[in-house]
User: Fold this.
Amino acid sequence: MDDLFYTRYLNHLKSYVHQQPEKKALILLGYIQRDFLRYYRRGMLVEGFEFIKNNIDKNKDLMKSLTAVQKTSQMHSFIDDLAHEGIQNHVEIYPFLELQQKYHNLLRDQPVDDYLEWVQRVINSFSFLMKVDNLSFSSRLESTLDIIYYINTNIYHKVTVKDVLIHANQYCNPAKAQRDFRDEMQMSISEFIGVQKMRAAQELLRNTDNTVKKIAEKLKYYDLNDFSKQFKRKVGMSPLEYRKTIFRKVLPDN
Assistant:
C-alpha cells in the first residue's frame, strides 16, 4: 500500500543514535501497529500480517532489546486499536468489547514472548468478528470515517481535497464520498481540513513553546501571514493572543 503514513520513516530508525534500542523498538511497534489498521479496515489480513512480519524481520536486533513486559504492554495497545476499529464499523459492539477484555485478561496471565505469534492470534480473532454484521466499506458512514482518518493522519502534511479524493477513489466513487461527507458532517471536506488544522494549531499553542512561525510551518501553511489570518478568522483572535489567554488561565491571579 502506498498510503502508509507511519512506517514510511522506519528505515531511518537506526540513525536515531540519541535513543536507546528499547525506545526505538517501541517506536517501531507503534508505527507498525498503526499502519496495520489500513490493511485491517480493508479486510486485507494476510497482506497486513505479512507487512508486520516483514518489518519485524528487518529489525530483529531491535526486537531483542524488548522485555516481555514491554511487548505485553504494546500488545494491550494493539488489542485496543483493533477493538476500537471494530466498534466504529459495526452495529453490534459488544462482541468486540468482550474479545478486547478476554485478551487483556489473557495477557495478564500470559506475558508476550513471541510477538508475531500473538499478533497472528489476535488478528485472527478480531478478523472473525469483522466479517459479521459489518458496515459495507463503501457505505456512507464508512467512507466518511475513512476520510476523517486520512485527514487526521496527514494533518501535518499539505493535505488537499484533491489528495483526499484520490485516496477515496481506491475503494469508492469519490464524488459520492464527497457528497456523503457533507451530509454526514454538515461541512465540506475543505472546511473539515481547516477545522482540524486549527485544532492542531491550538493544541501546539497550548502544549508547546514552538513559535507561531514554527507552528505554521509544521501545519504546512503557505506562510506566517496566511496562518495568522486564518487562525484569527476561525478562532476570533490571533495565535499570540490565544496563547496569552491560555497562559493567563493557567496562572491564577495572586
Notes: The radius of gyration is 21 Å.
